[in-house]
Amino acid sequence: MVACSFTDECAVAVPAERLWKAMSVKSSLLPKACAGYIDAVEVEGDGGVGSVTTVKFINPAVGGEVMTVKTRVVALDDAARVIRSEVLEGGKLSAGIKSQVNELKVEAAGEGASVVKIKVEYERLDGAALSPEHQAKMTQSMLGAVKKVEAYLAANPDEVV
């Protein structure tokens, strides 16, 4: 079997450090910022390497059914603003993916702005690569959450400073 990967990125009108704090596993902001998309986030551990996070997503495509994804932090570098998480349960693992690791990196991009880069590494049971359409759906989902956090922070300038 062959491991595959894909990347994507988006510009965000929020300073890198503020966005990093808001997107942190330790932050309680995601359910507020992503209301209607993320129902709840539960963290077992201190948010560092080894911590397990359970995120309950609301799937409007399936009548608002809640989908649970459990991940474990496998690498965290607060100085470089990079987190890597292994998907343990849920998400695309049930769709023929044997293993999946997601990486999120927040880079400064000038005053008051940043760039979020994501990388998804995966291995499918059949050894094939995901279709470009499937990859796009995965990155749109991840970057969609980032854009919701951006909008929330813009509307709430006193939070996460």
From TrEMBL:
Q: Which residues form the Bet v I/Major latex protein domain?
A: 1-156
| GO CC annotation, single | nucleus
Q: Name one GO molecular function term.
A: abscisic acid binding
SMART domains recorded: Bet_v_1
* Alphabetical list of SUPFAM superfamilies matching this protein: Bet v1-like (SSF55961)
Q: Which residues form the signal peptide?
A: none
Q: Subcellular location, in the record's words?
A: Nucleus
Q: Belongs to which family?
A: Belongs to the BetVI family.
Write the protein's name.
Bet v I/Major latex protein domain-containing protein
